[in-house]
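Quick one, tokens below. Sequence please?
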């Protein structure tokens, strides 16, 4: 599905949905309390990389960077909670493409399996799961996109928040993906360590090439704005499975504008192999503050 347009603005429709947000909040608190009973404690340290925003905030590159730095396995749910091949999710495919050990499916079951299979003490990186108290975390890190902030500040379905902003206090640290030379434009708790990361889009084409972009991600406008010489664009629902007809139409639209087709890495891994030579993806160069890595190392030492 597409990220609802009212998530970023306090529109009349958003206000009309606020009563449903209260129902969502009460139900989610009940589920949270029940799942907390008998929470599983892993022998190996669990580093949870999560968010409190629905939709894409750029969490996957952070997961990849931390897992690569620690040479750690990643556990994650598949798309729609499935571990079936067709639903493993673009995030899992992206991480696997990087050479990481990725375990898709029930996170608790996979963590138990990793504890049994491997006797070393390498941490396990858990993609998402901040809202799941059934697994005890040793370190919880929340990721935010500076350009999105808290959206309109409302809980689902009136806004993008999975939890109230006070939930940030449960986190050990926050990473804000920022634009260069710009400060954060939303309030974070003073007693929570905040680190910054910058992401630069790297086009596989030359600067003179015209680009026709398409994306099926949570906030496609962010991707489109990061590209130069853009002459056309097409947004699809998040996690969209492209059909042959879709790709035929995209190739035709790009050819009419004498442009090169470009998409995100998340979309590219979902494309049929036979079109991957014709359609390229924009890479991401992620840089996290050096003091974050110092903090993480010290935090892991304290957990020993």
């Amino acid at each position: 599905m597409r990220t609802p347009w009212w998530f970023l603005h306090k529109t009349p429709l958003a206000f009309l949905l606020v009563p449903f947000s209260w129902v969502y909040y009460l139900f989610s608190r009940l589920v949270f309390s029940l799942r907390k009973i008998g929470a599983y404690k892993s022998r190996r340290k669990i580093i949870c990389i999560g968010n409190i925003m629905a939709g894409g905030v750029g969490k996957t590159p952070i997961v990849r960077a931390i897992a690569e730095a620690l040479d750690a396995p990643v556990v994650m749910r598949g798309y729609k909670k499935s571990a079936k091949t067709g639903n493993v999710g673009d995030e899992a495919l992206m991480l696997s493409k990087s050479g990481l050990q990725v375990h898709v499916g029930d996170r608790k079951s996979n963590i138990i399996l990793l504890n049994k299979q491997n006797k070393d003490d390498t941490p396990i990186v858990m993609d998402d799961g901040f809202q799941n108290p059934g697994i005890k975390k040793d370190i919880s890190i929340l990721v935010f996109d500076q350009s999105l902030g808290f959206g309109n500040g409302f809980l689902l379905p009136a806004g993008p928040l999975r939890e109230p902003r006070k939930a940030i206090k449960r986190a050990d640290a926050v990473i804000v993906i920022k634009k260069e030379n710009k400060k954060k434009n939303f309030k974070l708790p003073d007693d929570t360590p905040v680190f910054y990361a910058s992401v630069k889009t790297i086009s596989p084409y030359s600067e003179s090439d015209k680009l026709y972009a398409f994306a099926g991600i949570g906030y496609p406008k962010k991707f489109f704005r990061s590209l130069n010489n853009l002459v056309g664009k097409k947004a699809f629902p998040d996690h969209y499975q492209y059909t042959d007809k879709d790709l035929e139409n995209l190739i035709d639209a790009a050819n009419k504008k004498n442009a090169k087709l470009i998409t995100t890495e998340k979309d590219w891994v979902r494309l049929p192999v036979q079109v991957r030579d014709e359609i390229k993806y924009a890479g991401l160069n992620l840089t996290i503050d050096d003091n974050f890595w110092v903090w993480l190392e010290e935090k892991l030492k304290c957990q020993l």
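DSSP finds nine helices and eleven strands in the chain. The CA atoms of residues 110 and 172 lie 24 Å apart.
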